[in-house]
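A quick aside before the break. I want you to see a complete sequence-to-structure record at least once, exactly as it would be stored in a machine-readable document. Don't worry about memorizing anything.
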Amino acid sequence: MKVENNIPTTIEDISDILKDMKFKHVLVGGVDDADVWKQIEKLDEAYRTLLAFQQDECKRQCAILEQKNTILTSKLIRLGKNYNWAYKQLEKLKEELEQMKGGEKS
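That is the input. The structure line, written in tokens, reads:
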């Protein structure tokens, strides 16, 4: 089995588990029923472990994205405030320039 620490983290790990799965054989009937159920339980546990791992990874990625979103939102707000301040300053300068031009004509 190629799965590290017996903890599947990808669907390929599950595939490796299936490839390595062996069943006890009996003389009559092919395979031991109890062993088949034991292998199915192991496979079920592997799927549950994989699902839990993926859910944890999803939560971790969501938390990172939320943090980045918060940072970007605060930067956008600051940029917006700076833009508004700069726009107001530009408008004041335009008004002063117009007043200066108007004063020159007199």
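Two observations worth writing down. The longest strand covers residues 25-26. The chain has a mean pLDDT of 86. We'll return to this after the break.
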